[in-house]
Specification:
The structure holds two protein chains of two kinds.
Chain A (H helix, E strand, L loop, with lengths): L5 E10 L4 E11 L4 E5 L6 H8 L7 E6 L2 E2 L5 H9 L1 E4 L11 H7 L7 H5 L5 H13 L15 H14 L4 E5 L7 H17 L3 E5 L3 H7 L2 E6 L2 E6 L6 H8 L10
Parallel strand pairs in A: 3-8, 3-9, 6-7, 7-8
Antiparallel strand pairs in A: 1-2, 1-4, 4-5, 9-10
Chain B lengths: L7 H12 L5 H33 L12 H20 L3 H6 L1 E5 L7 H41 L5 H7 L5 H33 L9 H5 L2 E5 L16 H20 L4 H10 L1 H7 L18 H29 L2 H4 L3 H19 L2 H12 L3 H25 L3 H9 L4 H35 L7 H10 L3 H29 L1
Antiparallel strand pairs in B: 1-2
Helix pairs in contact in B: 2-3, 2-9, 3-5, 5-7, 11-20, 12-16, 12-18, 12-19, 14-16, 15-16, 16-18, 17-18, 18-20, 19-20
The chains are: A alpha/beta, B mainly alpha.
Chain lengths: ~260, ~500
């Protein structure tokens, strides 16, 4: 078996303010091509873990290896080279609301494009073509010149996915990509992620709230509770007992189709 | 568990943080507000004592009741005492406005006895803090005096000479001055540090934990909304903050009335005898709007155009300077490290000082150096504009949605790219709106600046006023009013469109 794509070793994160342990000694490995789903209550450390992988948050201790390269030690240009291989999809889309859809998508290419011309808003021809293709993939070609805040939530998230596509990512981090969307839209967004997973072979690590969605899309599930891994296994292995362990005694499972 | 080694600078920073007084900021701000209000009240009392004493004894208006010098120190201490008393046994204005309240560990309102005990401990805590701060700052004030002596060329040798007598040649005296100054500073910091050490020895606890007075009586300070109360809240006029607000407003208006020397009798008596003047003002004479005024060699139209362009130039240049500065003055852009904090503090200080000096005052100062004319006025406007716009801009930058910044960072964008694609698109429309608004303000200010020799329409106003040509003064007022109204209208409409 080939070496795992992502190795997380004993990662701990302590927020100085308030003395909060967001992650407690988390270790896990992710293989190429997996669709890994993180579940857990709000505040269980899912977002923190995802952001530690591309160093939007600095882990307090521990090591993260991506394709054998230590992410936690990377600095400056090297860190940016690592980041551009990792696409990220956010809960609140994180688009520039006043900019056009095309501009938002092109921003995904900033890690590759020459820095000088991008400062005056110029991107290479092939990047613009790539942006057109990405928007076509998510079915938003007509909305190219619309301001991002004119779109619906689902459309905005599709722009977010098109932006991640621009990076030709080997790994996609999705931080509760469907929490702000209605169930029907949620499914279509996750299908886009699945498509990237299947057709482009990108590994996906996706934080989700709904277990039904996790079961449907995940090839493997990891559950966090109070910053520690409490379950790791296949989707079908989560039964009612496991569910109560993860979400607490009073929790009832809600179905989303 | 592997622990990444911490660099020396991180460790130094942590040590410094541990050393610093962990004053809860909200409570310090609330105390400052309450103390300030009570000091204001005590000043009003002082003013009224003087006023009533003079009125009763029929003495001259310059007579002052002779208070001893230490009365000021007593007043400062007494108001601090009252402020702490007020905060502990009632709900003070400061606590009410920040939304704080005392509660026990179970978030219920605190009973009387713990409250009283907390008052005593709080008083001790704040007194020690105030004393420590005074001890630490006094030497700085001393150094300031010495520096002032050096700059003004007068008082350099005064302090050591008075203390030690003549010390010989000037360099010996200078040396002693420096040694004494440094000793003063050291003394101040040592005493401050000692006060802190004493406190933490008396009530040891984790750093950043609840203040020691709270620990001692097992209480907590929490948000007022989180306190579990039984029964409805009191109506505001039965609370201490409500009554105090009424008292402050009442006393404030009364003392304000006295200081402004409001005299309605004069207003009525003089009005009839100045009928001629008012009549001339309301019949403006626009002859010199297009015809050059013989003494000023210029038309009023040129004057108002000059004013508008002065304002425009000051606004545009102000935009150019304020734009880069505003990023240095935005907390979320620069305060990643200590140097950043320094830059932030200096920039913000410039913004605040620049804004607080009226362009009118600056114009007078610049006119003395540069000569009277539009250039001095423009420069004064420019300085004020840079400060005011810089502050508005940087607050806008601080209020941006951090999401896009995060997204661009995650894409592998560099620092300038994050600025260009994550920050700039978010702030450009509000920046334009602020700039237009500023142009509008600058036109108004430029008319006033003209009156102290800044050129433009204000020059006409000043000249006609001195010549007592009230018809023309009336015309100038009408022109200014119309232009300001139009500018206000346009900038308002444009702002509506772009935000």
């Amino acid at each position: 078996m080939a070496a795992p794509q992502l190795v997380i070793e004993h990662v701990t994160k302590v927020y100085e303010r308030g003395d909060v342990h967001a992650l407690r000694d988390v270790s896990l490995t992710v293989n190429k091509g997996e669709f890994l789903v993180l579940i857990g209550l709000s505040g269980s450390g899912k977002s923190t873990l995802l952001r530690c992988i591309n160093r939007l948050i600095e882990p307090t201790s521990g090591r993260i290896l991506l394709d054998g390269v230590d992410v936690t030690e990377a600095k400056g240009a090297e860190l940016r080279r690592i980041r551009r291989k990792i696409g990220m999809v956010f809960q609140h889309f994180n688009l520039v609301k006043r900019s056009s859809v095309l501009r938002n998508v092109l921003a995904g290419r900033l890690g590759y494009a020459p820095p000088g011309p991008t400062l005056i808003g110029r991107f290479p021809r092939e990047d613009v073509d790539r942006a057109h293709r990405s928007l076509e993939t998510v079915g938003l070609s007509e909305k190219m010149y619309t301001r991002a805040d004119q779109l619906s939530g689902g459309q905005q998230q599709r722009v977010g996915i098109a932006r991640a596509l621009m990076q030709e990512p080997e790994l996609i981090l999705a931080d509760e990509p469907v929490s702000a969307l209605d169930p029907a839209t949620a499914n279509s967004i996750l299908q886009y992620l699945e498509q990237m997973n299947h057709e482009r072979g990108a590994t996906v690590i996706c934080a989700l709230h709904f277990l039904s969605l996790a079961r449907r899309y995940g090839t493997r599930i990891i559950a966090l509770k109070d910053g520690a891994v409490v379950f790791e296994g296949l989707p079908r292995e989560i039964d009612n007992v496991r569910f109560k362990e993860i979400y607490g005694e009073d929790a009832e499972e809600v179905e989303v189709r | 568990m592997t622990r990444r080694p911490r660099s020396l600078s991180t460790r130094l920073a942590a040590a410094w943080t541990a050393l610093r007084f962990r004053l809860p900021k909200d409570r310090a701000a609330a105390l400052a507000a309450d103390w300030g209000l009570l000091i204001l009240l005590s000043y009003c009392t002082y003013y009224l004592i003087n006023h009533w004493y003079r009125a009763l004894n029929n003495v001259s208006p310059v007579y002052r009741v002779p208070f001893p010098n230490y009365a000021y120190v007593v007043a400062a201490a007494a108001t601090l005492f009252l402020a702490v008393f007020w905060e502990n046994l009632g709900t003070s204005i400061g606590w009410k406005s920040i939304g704080l309240d005392h509660a026990d560990r179970a978030s219920r309102p605190l009973r009387f006895l713990p409250r009283a005990a907390h008052f005593v401990l709080d008083l001790a805590s704040w007194s020690l803090t105030a004393l420590g701060a005074a001890l630490a700052l006094a030497p700085l004030a001393g150094l300031g005096t010495l520096l002032y002596g050096v700059i003004s060329g007068s008082g350099l040798m005064v302090v050591p000479s008075v203390m030690l007598g003549p010390l010989g040649p000037w360099y010996v005296t200078l040396g002693w001055t420096i040694v004494l100054g440094l000793a003063l500073v050291a003394m101040g910091y040592v005493s401050w540090w000692a006060a802190r050490a004493l406190l933490s020895w008396l009530w040891p606890g984790r750093r950043g934990a609840t203040p020691w007075a709270d620990r001692a009586v097992r209480s907590q300070v929490c948000k007022a909304a989180d306190v579990v109360r039984s029964g409805p809240p009191r109506p505001w006029w039965r609370t201490s903050w409500g009554l105090m607000t009424l008292l402050l407003v009442g006393v404030g208006v009364y003392v304000g009335w006295l200081t402004a020397q409001v005299n309605l009798a004069t207003l009525i008596r003089r009005a009839s005898s100045t009928g001629d003047y008012w009549q001339k003002l309301v019949t403006p004479d626009f002859k010199y709007f297009l015809v050059p005024e013989p003494d000023l060699h210029d038309t009023m139209l040129n004057g108002i155009i000059q004013t508008i362009f002065m304002a425009l130039l000051a606004t545009l240049l102000g935009f150019v300077f304020a734009l880069p500065l505003s990023f240095l003055g935005a907390r979320n852009m620069v305060t990643k490290n200590r140097l950043g904090w320094g830059v932030y503090t200096v920039t913000r200080a410039f913004f605040n000082i620049g804004r607080s000096i009226e362009p009118f005052v600056m114009a007078v100062l610049f006119a003395t150096t540069l000569g009277y004319g539009p250039f001095a006025g423009c420069l004064a406007l420019l300085v004020h504009t840079v400060a005011a716009l810089g502050k508005l801009y940087s607050e806008q930058i601080e209020a941006i949605d951090p999401g896009p910044v995060e997204a661009i960072t995650a894409c592998g964008g560099g620092r300038t790219q994050i600025l260009r694609y994550g920050v700039v698109p978010q702030v450009v429309p509000p920046f334009l709106a602020f700039t237009l608004y500023r142009w509008d303000i600058n036109v108004r200010m430029a008319t006033i600046i003209g009156m102290v020799g800044g050129g433009g329409i204000g020059r006409f106003f000043n000249y006609f006023k001195n010549e007592l040509r009230w018809h023309e003064v009336g015309a100038v007022i009408v022109i200014i009013a119309i232009v300001v109204w139009i500018m206000d209208y346009i900038s308002g409409r444009v702002r509506e469109r772009i935000t």
